[in-house]
Amino acid sequence: MKKGNLLILCMAVLLSSCASEFNKVYKTADNDYKYEFAKQCFAMGKYQQASTLLQDLVLIQKGRDNAQECLYLLGMAQYGNRDYESASSTFKKYYSSYPKGTFAEQASFYVGQSLYQSAPEPRLDQTPTVGAINAYQQFLDLFPDSELRPIAQQRLFDLQDNLVQKEYLSAELYYNLGGYFGNINANTESNYEACIITAQNALKSYPFSKIREQFSVLIMKSKFELAENSSEEKKLDRYRDAEDECYGFLNEYPESKECATAEKYIAKCKKITKD
User: Fold this and answer.
1) Which is nearest to 241 in space by CA: 257, 225, 260, 255?
2) CB-count burial class (<10 Å; 0-12, 13-18, 19+) for 143
3) Which of 5, 62, 69, 88 has the fewest CB atoms within 10 Å distance of its CB?
4) What is the DSSP string of 100-123?
């Protein structure tokens, strides 16, 4: 028999043996042995097996000395198995059940960590991101001296960046839609106005954002385009507003690549505002 085929056969026998052992443990009435086997599975990185056993044991262990550890290990096994939604729920359950428990600090941290792992990319709905931010903030409030604090703070900043990026993509979409009127609602006159409002709100909510300049560029460009496309009775005021915005941009970002754009806009605005 070739070595490759022999190796495959050996692995198949080993896996079959492991599966058989797990099935025996799963069916056993010896819960202490089942618990020790679950911990062994967890230590070996067999998170799915550990999770399956621990889910049965959590109710059985309730009220016993191992209750806290069992619930916490279930959360960690679910987390290791990348079942982040279940892990988050289990860690929440642990902390609500044992707020002063042995693993309270870790459980509180891993609520946020689980939600962080499932946070979607900025283009998608950011509800999980907001949940993770709230969880990390709660952890920082509850355990201000924790060794995990630096990680939680960095995760918090990363998640806030996701929200900022989401707002930027929304503002950018409004700008790119420009004169299209199919999506305009009663609160805005044009997509350019919607872009301005979205970007300004983002700057208020996240004043220290890494992409603050990019929001400012969108506001400046949108104000100019809004002036260009305005009715005669609104043109003058909007060109003045656009001109002021350009000067403000040059003062705040004198080294920006968009300074030439700001200066070009100012020149065009002056042709209207100087009269």
Assistant:
1) 225
2) middle
3) 5
4) TSTTHHHHHHHHHHHHHHTPPPTT
Give the Cα-Cα-Cα angle 161, 167, 169 (nearest 5 degrees): 100
Find the length of the chain: 275
How far is Cα 242 from Cα 225, in angstroms, rounded to an integer? Answer: 9
Tokens encoding 174: 């409004």
pTM of the model: 0.79
Residue listed under structure tokens 């929304």: 170
Q: Where are the alpha helices (DSSP H) in the chain?
A: 3-27, 31-43, 47-61, 67-80, 84-97, 104-117, 127-142, 149-177, 191-205, 212-228, 232-252, 259-273
pLDDT in tens, 23-62: 787 777 788 888 999 999 999 999 999 999 999 899 888 8
